[in-house]
Amino acid sequence: MTRKEKAKEILNILNNIYPEPPIPLDHKDAYTLLIAVLLSAQCTDERVNKVTPELFALADNPYDMVKLTVEQIKSIIRPCGLSPRKSKAIYDLSQILIDKYNGEVPDDMAKLEELPGVGHKTASVVMAQAFNVPAFPVDTHIHRLAWRWGLSTGKSVEKTEADLKKVFPPETWNKVHLQIIYYAREYSPARGYRFEKDIISQKYGRKSFTSKYIDK
């Protein structure tokens, strides 16, 4: 079975389990999504969703955000971790959006990646979820499952993204990356893993991974 054939069958399973996967981070537009994704670095989506209501009540657009001080932002987002760096990035990118883009979030990957605190993954999430442009953001869950399922070598996040883009059709990317995240959390976590629950790895997992459990 080729990787593409395997990916097609995995996609069928994911579509059955998660026909309409919701976007995990609460937001109302591209700007609030951008801030939420930035905050989610090394932080759970659940915690971000607890923090952003307070922040967005004060500033849900770049014009209001720059009226706050970096210290004010930092005090609100502290539970998300890395608050000194994230608060400065939020303030600085908000000012750039005002100065360069009339307060709007650009629907362009390169321009997003130029913003402070916005890496390739964050930009990919915004492109996919705010602008519906095909992108394949790869987080730790997707990186882990791509290796477990033998769809990528797992040598780097960049390699995983490239490999997955080759085996899944572009029109599926925005949905399937969410489906894999939800599946990873529910059926194939890094901790507390139970092979008997992981129906996809049972059928399509790489042998070097599944043999540890099948032998038992």
TrEMBL record:
Q: Which GO terms describe its biological process?
A: base-excision repair, AP site formation
Please write the reaction equations for the catalytic activity of this protein: 2'-deoxyribonucleotide-(2'-deoxyribose 5'-phosphate)-2'-deoxyribonucleotide-DNA = a 3'-end 2'-deoxyribonucleotide-(2,3-dehydro-2,3-deoxyribose 5'-phosphate)-DNA + a 5'-end 5'-phospho-2'-deoxyribonucleoside-DNA + H(+)
Source species, domain of life: Bacteria
Q: Where is the HhH-GPD domain?
A: 39-186
Question: Is Metal-binding one of the keywords UniProt gives this record?
Answer: yes
Q: What class of enzyme is it?
A: lyase
Cofactor(s) this protein cannot do without? [4Fe-4S] cluster
Per the UniProt record, which EC number(s) apply here? 4.2.99.18
Q: Name one Pfam family in it.
A: HhH-GPD
- Cofactor binding, per record: Binds 1 [4Fe-4S] cluster.
Single GO MF descriptor:
4 iron, 4 sulfur cluster binding
Keywords annotated in UniProt = 4Fe-4S, DNA damage, DNA repair, DNA-binding, Endonuclease, Glycosidase, Hydrolase, Iron, Iron-sulfur, Lyase, Metal-binding, Nuclease
Q: What does this protein do?
A: DNA repair enzyme that has both DNA N-glycosylase activity and AP-lyase activity. The DNA N-glycosylase activity releases various damaged pyrimidines from DNA by cleaving the N-glycosidic bond, leaving an AP (apurinic/apyrimidinic) site. The AP-lyase activity cleaves the phosphodiester bond 3' to the AP site by a beta-elimination, leaving a 3'-terminal unsaturated sugar and a product with a terminal 5'-phosphate.
PANTHER family according to UniProt: A/G-SPECIFIC ADENINE GLYCOSYLASE/ENDONUCLEASE III, ENDONUCLEASE III
Q: Do you know which HAMAP family this protein is assigned to?
A: Nth
Q: Which family does it belong to?
A: Belongs to the Nth/MutY family.
NCBIfam families assigned: nth
Which protein, by its recorded name, is this? Endonuclease III
Organism field: Marinigracilibium pacificum
Q: Gene symbol?
A: nth
